[in-house]
Amino acid sequence: MSDTIEHRTIVVLGAGFGGIGMAIKLREAGFEDLVLLERADDLGGTWQANTYPGCACDVPSQLYSYSFAPNPNWSRTYGRQAEILAYLRGVATEHDVVRHIRLNTELLDARWDDEDALWRIETSRGPLTADYFIAAAGIFTEAKYPALPGLETFEGKTFHSLHWDHDHDLTGERVAVIGTGASSVQFIPEIQPAVAALTVFQRSAPWIVPRMDRPTWSVERSLLRRIPVAQKLVRGTWYTLIEGFGLVGFVDNRFRHPYELLGRFQLRRQIRDPRLRAKVTPDYMIGCKRAIFADAYLPSLDQDNVEVVTDGIAEVRSRSIVTRAGVEIPVDTIVFGTGFEPVPAAFERITGRDGVTIADVHRKRPRTYLGAAVAGFPNFFCTLGPFGAAGNQSAIYMIESQIAYIVDALTTLRGRGAHRVEVHAARQDAFVDEMHRRSADTVWLIGGCESYYTTPEGGNAGLYPGWSFEYRRRTKHFDSDAYEVGA
Q1: Taken in order 385, 391, 392, 396, is the CA torsion positive or negative?
Q2: pTM over 0.85
Q3: Using CA atoms in the order 468, 239, 54, 335, what is the torsion angle rounded to 10 degrees?
């Protein structure tokens, strides 16, 4: 039996949009010796993991898809989980990426070996080494649970939206939903008609604006199939509309007023009870945290079997929740819609040259260079790193920009016969300082709310404070002068 450890030129972590897109473009550039590590039993990333009722994308499908793999056959304006997952499976199969994916393979440890100039990687299916390591795992991967006194004494059922228990029937139950983020806004209208009583614990009201989702018509699908330029036009139109949200985010918060008027119109139109309307009216600027496109959420709250509670939770008992106002609410099942941990567990397991992990870097002061490289981590790249995500654009657009940059970097190294690359700390620091300087007057920081957009100290946690097309220009070509490149 051989003790030889498997070696690969490139190891990619994650088989979602980032990993699959990365593999496709790497293969197009002639990099065939690569493997994708995926801890789940299927590809798809967040669209494989999230299966809660009503799960869908809040970016129109014509934009939330690869530009190099357009799909004229979306059944709705906004893709739902099963259809998005089917799209990803189809793209991975068509581009012959599936054979590079190792399912049920969890990253246990990845460490840079400076002496041998390679990554030593431990997985749940054995060790391997790699010349280059690319983290393309999404940031919304670990469920976040609130610390509630007495939760361990609760005798009913509990689960998080990320781990929806489809075997547990909510029909006729008294259900408590904790949290009113994007996932809750989608699943609450789905479960509300079936439950006996639904109590929604709201810390802060989300801004809700019209979604205007609809089934696509067969004639428009046929048109998009026959005239590819029409699909490009639709994609470009959606891109422009969504990019316009940047006017609120980082240009001037006074641009928020039309959007807030739209949100208030939605509230007045969909909530009849003025007391409930007051409860679910946000008290911060739109754009300060993620605004949510939804048509069914507000009407689902204005039902006889629903109560919105804003008092906060004092404790959980065996079959009830007690509010800070002293009201005890009987509960059979608790569903957590409380979002995700800001630092995924995998980032705790990626260690750079000086014994520092990616998680250490992000916790101390989130930083990367262009959201794609990290000082102290040679031969390492990532997608959607800090300051590589936009609050006003599809994540897929930003991911494609990073993929192009990383592939160009590896192609440049190959052309030079170089085998080691690391961004200069000074260039990274200058980039991060620029990001914070440009963020000073953004609605994310001065809008009067707390969200994953900001650090506990009130700084920008990682959004790119500028136009996505500007970011794409910056990442169009690998800027080797920002890196130490060596043999």
Answers
A1: positive
A2: yes
A3: 20
